[in-house]
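Objective 1.3, modelling of assemblies. Example input:
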Amino acid sequence: MSAASLSVTDLRFRYPGEHHDALHGLSIEIEAGERVAILGPNGSGKTTFVMHLNGLLSTQSGEVCIGDTPVVEEHLREVRRRVGAVFQDADDQLFMSTVREDVAFGPANLGIAGDELGELVERTLERVGAGGYADRNPHHLSGGEKRRVAIATVLSMDPDVLVLDEPTSGLDPAGRRELIDLLSSLPQTQLIVTHDLPLALQLCDRSVIVSGGQVVADAPTAVLLSDAALLAEHRLELPMGFDPSKF
Amino acid sequence: MSGAHGSTVSRIFIPGDSRIHRLPSETKLVAVVAAVVVMAVTPRQEVVAFVLYAVGAWSVIAMTGIGLATYVKRLAVIIPFVLFAVIVPFLGGGESVQVVGVSLSVDGLWATWNILVKAGLGATLSIALSATTRVPELLHGLTRLRVPRLLVAIIAFMLRYIDVLVEQLGRMRRSMVARGHDPRWLWQVKPIASSAGALFVRSYERGERVHQAMLARGYSGVMPVVTDRQASLREWLSVMLYPLVFVVVLVVAVM
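Predicted structure (tokens):
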């Protein structure tokens, strides 16, 4: 497993038929192995942004690079191997009839087959603490289990960058803690889109606030979360009684 | 939430370790289809042949070890056919017989017998197949039988998401009931119709999201085959012996 840097320069995007840019000149540089929280209100362009990272939306203007590789049509295959995207609703991510097939889907598309594939699936499930789940139906997993298996479905492709959209939404406290333990143990560069500010503080040294399709703040998480005026301006709120300085 | 309740689809499978359970799924599929075809083309007057088929089908059920109660319960799927079939002798024309004072068409009685025996035996074999084969194995079986992968994928997605959809429908229904909706009459059907529309839109959106999740993991239009072993020639022969016996019965019967 390795990590890659990520660079986004002046990214602009407008959905067909809309009059406003969803992304309005977004730029960000992320070091290899860094974990960065992407914060921001609903509709700020966070999801549009992350969908550019593996080419699910193609750039209209600006540039996205994973390491030295620009995210363009001719590199899509490589980019999608290197950038593992974990979607918000695990039911979208787990679409096969068994956990095994779901975890095998990505590597099988990369041409891995036979015993090698079987071992890879077992190993990856062990890695996320879901060993022995291989033959289960994804529908029968708990929320926390689904989320970990969803991460396994991209880890099996040996990505350099992980992009996680709201990884803790809908999890119970223990499931949330297990997920945090898992993410903090992974070496990949991680972009975590979240409304869960304590999660950002716990996992990410650095956070950026995306608002109106732009990066409006980029600072160490502890500093950023201590700026009450800035948070309020972008509809972000810490849980009641939570003091980031005492963390 | 999911989890605690088994899904509709996976409940059909009954875990076990019978010989039928262990057979490769594609051999079972082909054998069942072949046997059903043979039964379907057997002329209805060949009662002896049907008795032999029944002995064959029931012995398979016995071998699966699913139990008589489960078998009978599942056989209930043919009730609609039964209801239709019992009407026929009253409506049929031609020669008739008197049964406790009621005139029944002979031709109609034969038609009833024909429907009942064929539906019953076909359902029996399908029950044996579905109770002993997990859904993913059935899908792998289809793949190994060279059924187009896209078609198998469509079936797989339907089975994967049917429970998600049913849950979604349940949530929508509960939210309607929670706001005082109590549909009893036909003119109250509007919310149900509109929720069906909403469900369609949600399913469509989910389809798009799933497609994106597939693309994100390198999907390029061809479902990857994650398949294990092929059935051996010996397994094929041992299973196909079964429909072959049916064929022999049929040939002897019509000669």
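The mean pLDDT of chain A is 93.
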